[in-house]
# Entry
Amino acid sequence: MRAMVLHAHGQVGGGVLVPVDRPVPQPGPGLVLVHVATCGICHTDLHVCEGELPPRPLPIVPGHQIVGTVAAVGPGVPAGLAPAAGARVGVAWLHQTCGSCHFCLSGRENLCPAIRFTGYDADGGYAEYAQAPAGFVHPLPARYDDLAAAPLLCAGIIGWRAIRRAGVAPGERVGLFGFGASAHLVLQVLGSWGCAVAVWSRAERHRTLARRLGAVWAGDYGEDGPWPLERAIVFTPAGQTVIEALRRLDAGGVVAIASVHLSPIPEFDHDRLLLGEREIRSVTASTRQDATEFLRQAERLPLHIETRSFPLAEAESALVHLKAGRIDGAAVLRVRP
# Structure
């Protein structure tokens, strides 16, 4: 099978992903083998390739927004968990948890100390086949084709968790800071809840897309916006953006940080920006319950999913475009011709 493999960390564009031919894996105990059709490209993949996350053993196949069909089921998978051969499934960032720690037993498996992630701890979807534990694959809404379904599996799921961590209620005033794959889905969910959404982005092309998808207002970070925010979600990896969100937040408001990697937040004035029971909350991965809830939302709405596709061999080029902010919506690899 064809795979794009990371052997050593480095700046994308410098040949960090190497095309490799590998045997098709046989699914191990408890695992499902997925014949990959598409795989979404995420900023987390960029952080993995460039070594901005805590190091994991290499080599690794990145990619954690996998859409494909079940090719085989390994031994030991309980009948109730075994998807049918040929069934269309998705594999997300959450690859496996222990299932027995106090976090897992209290519905917070995203905080499990033994957590493993797809495309980081286990080979992901920048390949023709990928494996995942049977309990961690997801049925996908039939209304989305393979290209459109891929971004649901991280951009959508983590966006949903960010909405929940921010505590957004229907009808509230919400600010989105950064407007990429996740934010363009979050905007549509919030619009369906009757929220008034303002978007901050450096790129006019992204602000234009935000307005088209229902943003009440979209502007650059130097602009104040139309009103004080009750909730804000930060999607960019720049710590300064947290300050931008705080200074537009109303008393009692919440900023949720949806970035898996964030540069240092600059020193700020507590009395001016945080006093008044304003809160900053982190978003850490997601749970399978988040995935179930969001995929139900996606089936109901429906969502317009803006994609730009690349062949598997151009995975690194796609990451370069993503890093430069040249992707409107989500980038997706076409793995299966």
User: Anything to note?
Assistant: DSSP finds ten helices and 17 strands in the chain. The CA atoms of residues 178 and 201 lie 5 Å apart.
